[in-house]
Every structure is written in structure tokens, then in C-alpha cells.
Amino acid sequence: MTEFAPVPAFALGPDIPESGYVVTDLGGGAYFVTQGMINTMFLVTKRGVVLVDASPFLGDKLLAAIAEVTPKPVTHLIYSHAHADHIGAAHLLNRDGLKIISHEVTGEFIKEAKNDDRRPLPTETFSGRRKEMDIDGVRFVLDYTGDWHQAGNLFIHLPEQKIMAAMDSFAPKNAPFFRLYFSAHLPAYFDAMDQMLEYDFETVVTGHMALHGTPEDVAMNREYIRDLRTAASEALRTVDLKEAAAAAKVPENNKQAELKVWMDAVVARAAELMPPWDKRLGGTDIFLADNLNAVAWSVFID
Q1: Residue 53 φ then ψ, to 5°
Q2: Whole-number pLDDT of residue 94
Q3: Tens digit of pLDDT for each residue in 168-205?
Q4: Could you tell me the pTM of the whole model?
Q5: Nearest to residue 49, comparing CAs of 69, 21, 23, 34?
Q6: CA atoms of 244 and 47, how far apart (whole Å)
Q7: Which of 186, 135, 219, 160 has its CA nearest to residue 290?
Q8: d(CA 234, CA 163)
Q9: Rounded-to-10 torsion of CA 298, 299, 301, 302
Q10: Chain mean position to CA 218
């Protein structure tokens, strides 16, 4: 059985009570809510609540969390992207008058997911790079800068509150999940870390784990993934395919096996080249091989 290093205290976040969630006041009418593995945010306006995503991991707890803060109804739901782990409880909020906003690409993905009543179609979509909205006097900026996680994924910026939502971008104080969050295009993922730091914000909500982050957390994640890329690049340069195949006794006519054992050897060497991160991020042992495999293939083919 695989043994994992304990999660360092700095990466754990708050204890989750029996209610199953924790609500944190971010200031300016904005609130952060988490159940430990998934998180999101909402903002209370003069007339109602603007919510980002509706995860099935929170489910009814999301409505309970909002009710702790305000009796006002949810008037707007912004889809950060189409993945069901983030918006698969949207049907619990759906009612006449609810505005559901997304990029048009997200709307198309939801249409393709036939017979999924959990994700109502957006009532309002936009194309191109940017949509700016004024909702009850609060300015929202929705930016589609590239396919860093899934096509249609948004940066959601509240300039006056200096808050961002960038769902599935990274997890503050923790190493990235599988294959850099299953990024649709790894060069865009690397670019996204630079892009995020161009915004004026103090708090970022990223969709997973129990913590919200800061610009310093973005910069730390960027440093970590750059180390992944440096280690993978050096391993690709120094690990020879034929030598790796011969060491594994792969038959010469089995080209697929050659490729497999070569990349396994590249990942193993890259892991040896990685500087120590276990005192700076949680979970570095869990996804290291997955992330190095994704980065190495991207360096090789992108």
C-alpha cells in the first residue's frame, strides 16, 4: 500500500465543523465557502447574491452557507467553466429570474453533455476575451485568456474588492492535482500564472481545498511548475530512449513499450532533479509523477 507524507499544517486550512462547511468574510460583501476539498465564493449586493459556481460537493450546504450571511436570494450564478464537479449542483438554484452567465464555449460544452439536468444552460453568454458587468453597483470582469484548464474557463475579477476567482488554476499552499489540473493545453497553463499576476487583487479563490490564496501563492505555484519544467527538460535531454528500452529489455519491434519505458525513465530522472518542496507546499509527493509526466510530454511535443 502506498504511504503518503502527512499534510503539513500550513496547507490544511480550517477544521470543517459538523455543518460540513466554513464561511469566511473576504470583505466588501464577498464571502468564501469551503467543505475542505472544494471551495467557491459569493458576493452580497443590494438586491441579492452573485454566486460563482455551484458544486455538488457542497450541494445544499451552499444554500445554508449563504443563508448564514444573508436572507437575500441568489440572483446571478456565474459558471467559471463547464466541469460538473464545480457546477453540478446548479439545478438546486435554478428558478425563474435566475441569471446564469458563462462564456459561450462553456454553454456549448453543457449542451453536449446531454441528459445532465444538474447543469442548466446559461441564460446569458458572451464571446471573445472579456465581459464587464455592473450588478447592483458592483463591477465584475470576466476574462477568457486561454484554455489553461478547459476551453471557456474564466478569470473572474472584482476590481473594487481586489478579489479574483480562478477555478481549477491551483490550490494555495498545495502542489497541483493530477497533470496540472488536467490542463487542456499546458503552455496556456504556464501563461495563466503570469496573467493572474497582472491583475490587481489581494485574494484569489481557486476552487479546491480549504484555503483561499494571495498573489504570493500564485507566484509560489508558478515557481513550482517552472521547477517541474526545468527538471523535465533536463531529463528529456539526458535520458536516451534506446538505452531506457534496452535496460527494460523491451523487444525492438515493440515501439509502444519503448515509448512507455522511456517516458517512465524521464519522469523518474526528473523527480530526482526536482529541488525539495515538501516544506513549502503540501502534497508534493502525491502528484509529482503525474505532473512531471504531463510537463515532460508538453515540453517534448508542444
Answers
A1: 65, 165
A2: 87
A3: 999 999 999 999 999 999 999 999 999 999 999 999 99
A4: 0.96
A5: 69
A6: 64
A7: 186
A8: 37
A9: 70
A10: 12
